[in-house]
Amino acid sequence: IGNTVLHILVLQPNKTFACHMYSLILSYDRNKEGPGSLELIPNNEGLSPFKLAGVEGNTVMFQYLMQKRKQNLWSFGPLSTVLYDITEIDSWAEDQSFLELIVSTKKREARQILDLTPVKELVSLKWNMYGRPYFCFLALFYILYMVCFTMCCVYRPLKPRTGNRTSSRDNTVYVQKMLQESYVAYEDELRLVGELITVIGAVVILVLEIPDILRVGAAKYFGQTILGGPFHIIVITYACMILVTMVMRLTSTTGEVVPMSFALVLGWCNVMYFARGFQMLGPFTIMIQKMIFGDLMRFCWLMAVVILGFASAFYIIFQTENPENLGQFYNYPMSLFTTFELFLTIIDGPANYDVDLPFMYSVVYFAFAIIATLLMLNLLIAMMGDTHWRVAHEQDELWRAQVVATTVMLERKLPRCLWPRSGICGREFGLGDRWYLRIEDRVDPNKHKMMRYTEAFKVQDRDNYDKGSEKLETNGDTLCKKEMSALSLSRSTSRTSSHRGWEILRRNT
Predict the structure, then answer these.
(1) Do residues 122 and 89 make contact, with C-beta atoms less than 8 angstroms apart?
(2) Does the pLDDT value for residue 3 go beyond 80?
(3) Which own/partner contact pairs does 119-124 have at CB distance under 8 Å and 24+ positions apart?
(4) Where on the phi/psi map is residue 228: left (φ > 0), alpha (ψ -120 to 50), or beta?
(5) CA angle 36-37-41, nearest 5°?
(6) Which of 130, 268, 479, 485 is the most buried (most CB within 10 A)?
(7) Neighbour-count burial of 53, counting CB atoms closer than 10 A to its CB (0-12 exposed, 13-18 middle, 19+ buried)
(8) DSSP state of 296
(9) Rounded to whole angstroms, how far apart are CA atoms 457 and 463?
(10) How confident is the model at residue 492 (pLDDT cuts 50, 70, 90)?
(11) What CATH number does the domain containing 12 carry?
(12) What gap in Å lies between CA 295 and CA 291, rounded to an integer?
C-alpha cells in the first residue's frame, strides 16, 4: 500500500505537497536501506518511483529524490564536492535503463531531465570518453563497408548480349553472367572477397537488430525518431536486399539489378544516421525525418491522385500519335513517369515543333501547370516551412536525446571490456556497493545575495498589497472609486519600493 501511494504521489500535479507526503511516508518505512524499501519496489510496468518520475517528466520530484541520494564529500569556501547515487540512472547494469526510458517516452517534459544534475554530467562523461570515439569508428567502418559493396556492384559479372533485338527501342548490350561464368578470372576472385564481406556485414546487421526488436517491440523500435526508427527500417531492408541478391546470384536468376539498386540507395542513405554524432549535422537529420514522415507523407497522397489523373489524360491524348516524334507518353508507365517529372518541374513540357500537337494537350497541360506547379508545390513549401519553425525550437533538445539513445545503444552492443562502468564504487567511501558520480560544484555568494534582495522586494510588495486590500474592505460605500484609487496606490508604492530595492542592490554591487 505504501509503495502504491508513493507511485501516486509522483503523478500528483501539486509537486510541493507530493514531496512532503513522500517524505512523510518514507519516515514510517522500517526497511529504509534494505532490499524491502518502499522506494525499490517496482509497479506492474517495472518502474520504481524514481524511474516513474523520470518517465512522467516530473522534474521537481526527480530533483527531490536526487537530493536525498547525494552525499556531501567535502566543502571549502565556495567549492564543494558531492557524490550522486547513479545506481538506477546508469544503464551499465540495468535491464530497463533510466536513460533509455527517458529518451523513449513521448513526453517532452521527460527530456528536460537530461539537463539536470547528475544526468547531464553522466551522459557527458559516457559520450566523451567512450561514446563519441566508438561512434566515429563505427561510422568510418560503415563507410568503408559501403565503398566495398559499391565496387562489387559496379564490377558485377556481365557479358555481351548475343540475342537479336525484338524492338527498335531495345538498347541492351550486356546481360548477367551465369554462376559458372562469374568467378573465373583473378578480378572475379577479388570481387568474390568483397561480396563475402558484404554478405557477412548484412548478416551481422540482422543479428544485431533483431534482438532489440524483440526486446523493445516493433512499434516502439521503428516508430520513434529519437531511437532512430526510420534508419532501423532502412538498414534492415538493406540487409534483406543483400541476401536476396545473393540468392539470385547463386541460382543464376536474372534481374539481380533490382535488389542490388535498392540496396545501394538504402545503404548510402543510412550514412545519415551517423550524422547524429555531430552537433553541426545532427539537428538537420531530425528536421529531415520530421518533414519526410510528417508533411511529405501526407502530400504524397495528394500528389499521387493528381499525377494519376493527368498521366491518364496525357496517355489518351498521345495514344494515336507516332511515338518516334513524341516518345514521352508512348506507353502508360512512361506517361506516369513523365508526369511525375513535370509535376516537380524537372523537365519542361514535351513539345516537338516539327509536328502538330493535339489541341487538348495544350488545355490539359495548362491546367496541370496551374494545379501542380503554382498551387501544390507552394503548398508543400509552406508546410515544410511551418514544420521547420516548430522543430527548430526543440531540435537541440532532440539532438541531445539522440546522443543519449546512441550512447545507451553502444553500451549495450559493445563488450564490457571495451566499456567499463562509469563512476566510483561506494566502498571507497564506506557507502556500500552502490555507484556514485563525483561532481564539483562552485557556490556563488553573489547569487545568494541576489536571491535575498529579491525575496525582500517580494515581501515589501506583498505588504503594500495587503494594506491596500484592508483599505478596500473598510471603505465599502464608495467601492468603485476606492478600488481604482487603492489599486493605483498599491502600484505606485510597489513601484517605489522596487525602485528603492534596486538602488540598494546597485550600491552593494
Answers:
(1) yes
(2) no
(3) 119/89, 121/437, 121/439, 122/86, 122/89, 122/90, 122/422, 122/423, 122/437, 123/99, 123/400, 123/403, 123/404, 123/407
(4) left
(5) 80
(6) 130
(7) buried
(8) I
(9) 10
(10) very low
(11) 1.25.40
(12) 5
Amino acid at 99: L
Assess whether 365 and 397 both reside in one domain.
yes
Do the Cβ atoms of 399 and 103 come closer than 8 Å?
Answer: no
3-state secondary structure of 331: coil
Is 462 inside a domain boundary? no
Q: List phi, psi (to 5°) of 445.
A: -65, -30
Q: What's the CA gap between 50 and 316, in Å, rounded?
A: 67
Q: What is the dihedral of CA 84, 85, 90, 94, to 10 degrees?
A: -170
Average pLDDT over residues 128-153: 90
- The boundaries of the domain holding residue 194 are 123-162+170-275
CA-CA-CA-CA dihedral for 445, 451, 453, 457, to nearest 10? 180
Domain boundary among 355, 384, 408: 408
Q: pLDDT averaged over the chain?
A: 76
Tell me, yes or no, whether 431 and 385 share the same domain.
no
- Model confidence pLDDT, tens digit, residues 185-218: 888 889 999 999 999 999 999 988 888 777 777 6
The neighbour count for residue 470, using CB atoms within 10 Å, is 11
Q: Which residue has the higher pLDDT, 461 or 80?
A: 80
Cell of residue 272, nine digits? 545519415
